[in-house]
Task: inverse folding
């Protein structure tokens, strides 16, 4: 219990053994309990004005949080899971996923949360992952599960913790929170750039067609060629987002169509393999064959010879938006699910 003293200062009543609570602080500051909690935890998503009100109220009330007790009351752990549903070996070799992991750590640290990294690969991992997430170890999850046949997204819909997906959730379009990039629009940017440069035999090395992002990139390539009056027939080759996959796909395209004058590649890593195949076959870049890729990875695209023109998407921007959505969900469980599509741009370099 608290009283107002004659001097206007507020504090525990003399002799009163009751400590001021978080609810007392929130009520005195005129904010919600969740806002008071986030302000006291130095959460980045609290306005400066609200934070100052809460901190001032806490000082006046003599509020001193007990972290262990607070966790018991709020049932919050301060930890957020980042779940990557891919083979571990593939994840560690994938520059985009590596960037996602770094961004996850940084963005969660910035809002005072601890990252718990989970790899979910084989079917046994699925049950372990679900048990861990529903066991009260984390407050929410950021999930990357790109494969359409992956059972993980459907299993996670039954959890009582908030979940935000990075990219489409195994084809689930409704009832989930998704932050994705404009994959089809990015492909359109790439192909329109090649068409504007006078290229007419524009092939593509598509990513795995069991994932939404490469499906959308392939669709963008095809639609843009048709809109330009160009025939996409037999000019697509699927690969697996690896260097060797890109190299083999480029070899197959050249064997079928040696007159290709451009190629849109669905990832930087595959584009590196494609460049090596083109160079070995004696094709000059971009004089004979122009190359445009997707990702604009800072350690790959500018470092190639020649530097790669690439569709730019920033995993830090995606993870930031995911964390922002998750923090809102922790405050308001009734936040309406939506598909948040982030824009992309084209970084033009010497390969095109």
Result:
């Amino acid at each position: 219990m608290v009283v107002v003293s004659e001097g206007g200062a507020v504090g525990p009543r003399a002799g009163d053994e009751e400590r001021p609570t978080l609810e007392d602080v929130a009520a005195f500051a005129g904010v919600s309990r969740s806002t008071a909690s986030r302000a006291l935890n130095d959460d980045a998503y609290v306005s400066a004005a609200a934070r100052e009100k809460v901190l001032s109220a806490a000082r006046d009330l003599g509020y001193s949080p007990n972290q262990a007790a607070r966790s018991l009351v709020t049932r919050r752990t301060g930890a957020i899971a980042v779940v990557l549903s891919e083979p571990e070996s593939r994840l560690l070799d994938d520059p985009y996923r590596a960037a996602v992991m770094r961004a996850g750590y940084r963005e969660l640290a910035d809002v005072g949360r601890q990252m718990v990294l989970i790899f979910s690969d084989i079917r046994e991992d699925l049950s372990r992952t679900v048990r861990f997430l529903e066991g009260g170890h984390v407050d929410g999850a950021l999930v990357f599960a790109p494969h359409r046949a992956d059972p993980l997204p459907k299993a996670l819909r039954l959890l009582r913790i908030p979940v935000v997906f990075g990219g489409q959730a195994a084809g689930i379009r409704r009832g989930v929170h998704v932050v994705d990039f404009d994959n089809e629009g990015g492909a359109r940017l790439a192909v329109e750039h090649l068409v504007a440069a006078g290229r007419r035999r524009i092939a593509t090395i598509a990513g795995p067609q069991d994932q939404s992002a490469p499906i959308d990139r392939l669709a963008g390539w095809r639609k843009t060629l048709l809109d330009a009056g160009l025939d996409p027939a037999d000019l697509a080759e699927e690969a697996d987002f690896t260097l060797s996959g890109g190299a083999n796909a480029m070899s197959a395209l050249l064997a079928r169509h040696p007159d290709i004058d451009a190629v849109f590649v669905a990832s930087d890593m595959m584009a590196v393999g494609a460049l090596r195949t083109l160079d070995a076959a004696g094709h000059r870049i971009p004089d004979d064959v122009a190359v445009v890729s997707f990702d604009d990875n800072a350690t790959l695209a500018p470092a190639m010879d020649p530097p790669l023109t690439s569709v730019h998407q920033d995993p830090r921007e995606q993870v930031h938006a995911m964390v922002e959505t998750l923090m809102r969900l922790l405050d308001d469980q009734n936040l309406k699910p939506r598909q948040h599509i982030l824009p992309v741009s084209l970084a033009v370099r010497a390969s095109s």
Notes: The two ends are 71 Å apart (CA to CA). The CA atoms of residues 247 and 273 lie 4 Å apart. The first strand starts at residue 2 and ends at 4.
